[in-house]
């Protein structure tokens, strides 16, 4: 990594420009400026440990904000090539670790190694404390959690523990499969718990044949009897109409669509030439 210094008032990254560097602030203070509405501007302070330029570098998109030093700032910087090498290596190590975890998830045993590998690449890791609620009854289901470490409890409407989840167990998949609001609370019961989670958009894209296996277990398995009773009662949950939120930021989506369109045109052109 290189070390760069920015004096007061000097711009670190500029809105609308495609920066080729990622910055980690080592010392000093900076702030970002981004328009949130036509007549408003949001300012966010930055200090030691904060990063600048990583999202734009990751998605090859113009910066959405301008970052300016408000006192002398020292940064460690990586160029695009070095950043991709480091992040690719870290992503590969994480992918292998999660792929090994997915091998032990019963619902996903029907997926091919390639499908499990693709799924592993999308998982996001999180660590949670005892008593923390990961899924709230009556709320939209945002994530499927796969337990990596620790234990979770599925708690029913009468505060009864329906199930205890251990390594390789899933929570939140029912809501994704059937499209309704969450039917139970899922709470961390161990001192800490670590999960690998996936959002609905990627779940729908990557889950493949495992969908039928999951649905069969839910409709026939003994551990889901309380859920089936709930769905047959007047207390059945409402449909979840909220959009999937695990898409890239809005300002990046248009860039990604343009890139996808360019790739399709290139593929069509190559096909015609053949």
Automatic annotation (TrEMBL):
Instruction: Name one molecular function that GO assigns to this entry.
Output: cAMP-dependent protein kinase inhibitor activity
Region of interest called Disordered, as start-end residue ranges on this chain: 227-274
Q: Where is the composition biased (Basic and acidic residues)?
A: 227-239, 263-274
Domain (Cyclic nucleotide-binding) spans 1-104, 107-224
Which InterPro entries does the record associate with it?
cAMP-dep_PK_reg_su-like (IPR050503), cNMP-bd_dom (IPR000595), cNMP-bd_dom_sf (IPR018490), RmlC-like_jellyroll (IPR014710)
Instruction: Write down the superkingdom of origin.
Output: Eukaryota
Which Pfam families did the record assign?
cNMP_binding
| Family annotation (Gene3D superfamilies) | Jelly Rolls
Record field: compositional bias (Polar residues): 252-262
Q: Which SMART domains match?
A: cNMP
Mind telling me which GO cellular component terms the entry cites? cAMP-dependent protein kinase complex; cytosol
Protein name listed in UniProt: Cyclic nucleotide-binding domain-containing protein
Q: Which organism is the protein's source?
A: Strigomonas culicis
Lineage of the native species?
Eukaryota, Discoba, Euglenozoa, Kinetoplastea, Metakinetoplastina
């Amino acid at each position: 990594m290189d070390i760069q210094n920015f004096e007061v008032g000097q711009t670190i990254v500029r809105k609308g420009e495609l920066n080729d560097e990622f910055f980690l602030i080592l010392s000093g203070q900076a702030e970002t400026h981004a328009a949130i509405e036509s007549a408003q501007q949001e300012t966010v302070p930055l200090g030691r440990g904060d990063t600048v330029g990583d999202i734009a570098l990751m998605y090859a998109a113009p910066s959405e904000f301008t970052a300016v030093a408000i006192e002398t700032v020292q940064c460690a910087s990586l160029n695009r090539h070095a950043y991709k090498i480091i992040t690719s290596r870290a992503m590969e190590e994480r992918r292998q670790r999660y792929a090994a975890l997915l091998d032990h998830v019963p619902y996903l045993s029907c997926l091919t190694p390639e499908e499990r590998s693709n799924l592993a690449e999308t998982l996001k890791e999180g660590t949670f404390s005892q008593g923390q609620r990961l899924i709230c009854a009556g709320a939209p289901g945002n994530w499927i959690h796969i337990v990596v470490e620790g234990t979770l409890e599925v708690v029913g409407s009468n505060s009864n523990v329906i199930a205890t989840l251990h390594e390789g167990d899933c929570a939140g998949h029912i809501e994704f499969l059937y499209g309704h609001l969450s039917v139970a609370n899922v709470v961390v019961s161990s001192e800490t718990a670590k999960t690998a989670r996936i959002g609905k958009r990627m779940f729908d894209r990557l889950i493949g044949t495992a969908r039928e296996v999951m649905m069969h277990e839910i409709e026939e398995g003994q551990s889901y009897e309380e859920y089936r009773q709930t769905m047959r009662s007047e207390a059945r949950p409402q449909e979840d109409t909220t959009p999937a939120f695990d898409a890239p930021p809005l300002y990046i989506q248009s860039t990604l669509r343009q890139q996808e369109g360019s790739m399709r045109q290139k593929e069509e052109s190559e096909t015609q030439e053949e």
